[in-house]
Amino acid sequence: MSMDILLETERLLLRPWRNEDLDPLAEMCADPEVMRYFPETLSRDRSAFLISRCREKADADGFCFSPVEVKDTGEFLGFVGLSVPTYGGPLPFDPCVEIGWRLKRSAWGKSYASEASRAWLRFGYETLDLDEIVAFTLPDNTPSQAVMKRLCMSRDLKGDFLHPALPADHAMALHVLYRLTKDDWRLSDR
């Protein structure tokens, strides 16, 4: 079912993974500041596994997180996309499709995450005909929550949950949930 998805925005190209993405991805995922809202940084091998996993999920589901690059220069910024979550245990709101992003530090503060995410939301609602897309993060991750709000996602105040990939007593287990229905997306300034 794999679709080599290629999305464009005014400044960005959202494209399938390439072998040459490993070096910039590994550098980004080894940055403690980029990974401060994740349990740990990733080694080069774990970054390679991340690419492999995204490719597998794209083959199985038709989509997954994919690289974001600057159209004019080809600079790798990180990844953004939609994914059917598989975290080793069910989420309380399964089945679902999540939107997520991870960008290198030099790409922060330039609205790249919002711009790329808007393209993925359009793809999710118009091409995949999804009824809802969710996003979740740590309560302290205010930068990602700001992106969620810019995307017109609403915090589900009853939706806080313990992430199934982490022990319940882990400092990063608690996550907050944001939702965006297709109807609300249509009403928003896409």
From TrEMBL:
TM annotation in the entry: none
Stored InterPro entries: Acyl_CoA_acyltransferase (IPR016181), GNAT_dom (IPR000182), N-acetyltransferase (IPR051531)
Superkingdom, natural source: Bacteria
Gene3D superfamilies, sorted: 3.40.630.30
Residue ranges constituting the N-acetyltransferase domain according to the UniProt record: 11-151
Pfam short name (any one): Acetyltransf_3
Protein name, as recorded: GNAT family N-acetyltransferase
